[in-house]
Amino acid sequence: MSARNGHLPPGPRLPMLVQSAIWFRQAQRMLRTCHARYGDTFRLQIAYEGTWVFVTHPDDVKQVFTGDPKLLHAGEANRILLPVVGPQSLLLLDEDAHMEHRKLLLPPFHGQRMKRYGELMSDIAAREIDTWPLGEPYRLRPRMQAVTLEIILRAVFGVQEGERLDRLRTELRNLLDVLTDPRQAFFLIALGPQRIRNFGPFKRKIAGVDSLIYAEIAERRHAEDLAEREDILSLMLQARHEDGSPMSDAELRDELVTLLVAGHETTATALAWAVERLVRHPAKLERLTAEVADERDEYLTAVIQETLRLRPVISLVNRTLKAPMEFGGYQLPAGVKVAPCIYLAHRRPDVYPEPDRFLPERFLERPPGTYTWIPFGGGVRRCLGGAFAQFEMQVVLRELVRRRTLRPSREGDERVYRRAITETPRHDAEVLVG
Prior knowledge:
Layout: E1 4-5, H1 16-38, E2 41-46, E3 50-55, H2 58-66, E4 72-73, H3 74-77, H4 82-85, H5 95-105, H6 111-115, H7 118-129, E5 137-139, H8 141-156, H9 163-180, H10 182-191, H11 193-197, H12 200-221, H13 232-238, H14 249-263, H15 265-279, H16 282-293, H17 298-310, E6 319-321, E7 325-327, E8 330-332, E9 337-340, H18 342-345, H19 362-365, H20 386-403, E10 406-408, E11 416-419, E12 422-425, E13 430-433
Helix pairs in contact: 7-8, 7-20, 8-14, 8-15, 9-12, 12-14, 14-15, 15-17, 15-20, 16-17
């Protein structure tokens, strides 16, 4: 069938502000409703974003992820993040600039080097878990945030115990609380990325974080043991552009904040969801505990993959079209954002039988598909820290099931609660720890 030239796919006829408000509070419900009504390809109108065209079929997802990056700009589509991550963040770069920065940042996330952080992650997780109270309702998502923040401070920033670590932890925690508080995040989104950059209270909060980060960069540049250090900041300081020049302070700052924002809340939320699902499926939790005790990781990996399928932390990735292109039978104009929908792609019954069930066993039988399991996006824009995040989840969950028993503190599944751009457990994965 020929493409429908000049016609956008169908979508809600509600005013843009109404669509935006619904999206901000109930994104996944909105996606389910639109998919049921309009099919695999549909559109939404979102304030400060314009037209989003969602694609959910694996063929269309593949087309986006394998398309020409000169015609499909992910950085431009991520401009909402500019006030936080900065203009030289990998998330906001496109084409040659993106590829050059990606090459600079790849070495710290190489598999063997990454696994050297395993002992550090285990120690941080163990110390945190040992502080949890026993036998009373306890919300795990904030505690998982504490774990992932500490891992970033130690593995990424390379900051050791002491006053500087305490100050950096406090300032970063304050900034992250603003970004993940739905009330404050809605205010930030309502202002839009350009106005929020000049908004006094926000500028002051960013400035407080930046002063500490720039001080850390300055001191690390002159560290006598820089070549022997293995934290990611130290490795970035030793990286060189194609012309032989080092990364500037501004580049380092933007990439450090990107790693913080992209790797903290998302991994903590995924860990919370893994626990929430496991405690409501005690046989699967029992199997996981037994296999971890036997030092086997196959089921642990499958649990993580199934958690990220069933409860993706983010519902979509985005590309801005720089030229007219055809997707899902529609010839879309330049300027439209095409969004592979993680949430809906993960719930296709033709790919995942009984898609609403928590079945880690499905990934023991068949590995995740490149264009059907996309919690970290895909193609040249696939999340650079995806393997790091999954490894971190493995380490933390392994420590947790070794050290504690877990039961749900309330009946019924926890609903999805939208917190800024992430989808979290409504009661923060509240459990009884034993």
